[in-house]
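subagent[fold] <- orchestrator: predict structure for attached chain, return tokens only, no commentary.
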Amino acid sequence: MCLTHFKKRIMHIEIFKSDRYFILYDIIVSHGQLLLRSQKTNEFKNNVDVIFFGAVYIQSFARLKGLKIKRLDNDIDKISYKAVKSYLEYENNHLFEIESSGEKYYIAASFVRVFENSLDFEESSLKAMEKGREIASSFI
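subagent[fold] -> orchestrator:
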């Protein structure tokens, strides 16, 4: 198969899945960083932090009961905004689908990484030098 044909093929790559409860926890607009966090509890000893880097488009509910994250390659028809589609034309920019409670939301970003950590509630991993142990990533 030639590379040109391969690039046009629609691919959905599952990156991460969890049944935990996540919230939209922090954002640094100037750096395009978005943090979704599942807070540590008596049941779970660590936070799970999902960090999107280079995020330019965010369509999400603030509270997510369980989530599944997929990278949608060459499937930009899910979005109707011309500016977002233009962003997604660049090689290192991707559309991520977040599925939670039967609903689908979309984030346009460069990449996503998922960490486990024991940061306190008031600590954001976006500002922490040590983000924790990486458990998933959109890098293939």
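orchestrator: received. Logging for downstream: The chain has one domain: 8-118. Residues 8-118 form one domain.
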